[in-house]
Design a protein that fits this description.
33% of the residues lie in helices and 24% in strands. The chain is α+β, with helices and mostly antiparallel strands and 323 residues long. The chain has a six-stranded mixed beta sheet with strand order 8-10-7-11-9-12, sandwiched between helices. The radius of gyration is 20 Å and the shape is globular.
């Protein structure tokens, strides 16, 4: 056993080497002392992961550490923010030293990539593992991406490919057979999502609205439509689908997965017509795909259309914790 709560904090969290100049006092006191950069707005977000709900209890702790931070960085990316600080509340059934070492490897490897410093938090004992992170970042005043700015005529885009994490979960639960030769790829998409931080920052002066895809494209785009008081028409045959998805599912099931599966952590965003050319030129240099999938409409609601103009029938909208 590693020891007391304070031993855990000192050994696994406080000793990490990354130190930002805007952190005057981090872990080890009743609170952190922080100096936000002049002329920037602070963006704060929080996510909780619960064993048996958001990850398998037997999942790789290194992957859990990565994902716990990645989902928060994805929220910051969706607002165009540059990540800076994070706090961690960790509940564990027991103080497993090997688990903690691996968890910290995953957490800090991603934190170091984005120069994010852990500045405080809490550790406690409980019946199941619960991980809550709050992340903070900065964005220039007036440039934060929001959900309420989409206008009729704006194009709808997504980064990356959609539905892979949902397929990985279906394979793990035995709902879809095999996974072909794509098991490693699917596991990475589920356990180690890549937050689109650089893309979010680049979109600050281009996109009119944005959201990260945590509960499925149809449901999350619906939040933009609700806040923007608009509708959208999606061309479902344009959805970016990976070879893994197309190999494991028929076309209708693959499109459904792309529209409804959670845990993609890609960005969905809208772009006014006069900025489309700028966006597409910029996206040529991104390390992920960027695909136009539809258009914002004045008529409320989400229309799903096939290439021949027929309607695509969807029997569910996305993930719901209490649905």
């Amino acid at each position: 056993m590693p020891g007391s709560e304070f031993t855990l904090i000192d050994r696994y969290f406080a000793a990490h080497e990354l130190r930002r100049s805007d952190v005057m006092l981090g872990i080890g006191d009743d609170g952190a002392l922080l100096v936000p950069p002049s002329g920037q707005q602070l963006v704060a977000t929080m996510d909780t992961l619960v064993a048996g709900v958001h990850f398998f209890a037997a999942a790789s702790p290194e992957g859990i550490g990565h994902k716990a931070l990645a989902v928060n960085l994805s929220d910051l990316a969706a607002m165009g923010a540059t990540p800076a600080w994070v706090t961690l509340a960790l509940t564990l059934p027991e103080a497993d030293e090997d688990w903690l070492k691996a968890f910290c490897r995953g957490l800090f490897a991603l934190a170091d990539r984005y120069e994010v410093q852990l500045i405080g938090g809490d550790t406690t004992r409980g019946p199941v593992t619960v991980i809550t992170l709050q992340a903070q970042g900065f964005v220039p005043p007036g440039l934060a991406l929001r959900r309420d700015g989409a206008k009729p005529g704006d194009s709808v885009y997504v980064t990356g490919t959609l539905g892979d994490a949902g397929l990985a979960l279906a394979v793990a639960l035995g709902r879809v057979g095999g996974g072909g030769g794509y098991q490693n790829y699917l596991q990475m998409r589920l356990e180690r999502p890549e937050p689109r931080v650089a893309q979010g920052r680049a979109l600050c002066e281009i996109a009119s609205a944005a959201i990260d895809l945590s509960d499925g494209l149809a449901q999350d785009l619906g939040h933009i439509l609700e806040r923007s008081e608009a509708g959208a028409r999606l061309e479902v045959d344009r959805l970016p689908l990976s070879p893994a998805l197309l190999a494991c599912l028929d076309q209708h099931a693959a499109i459904t997965a792309a529209l409804t599966s959670g845990d993609d952590y890609e960005l969905c965003f809208t772009v006014p017509p006069e900025r489309v050319e700028r966006l597409e030129h910029l996206a040529m240099h991104w390390d992920c795909r960027c695909t136009r999938i539809g258009v914002i409409t004045a008529e409320p609601g989400l229309q799903l259309l096939r290439a021949d103009g027929s309607a695509f029938r969807l029997d569910r909208s996305g993930y719901d914790h209490f649905g």
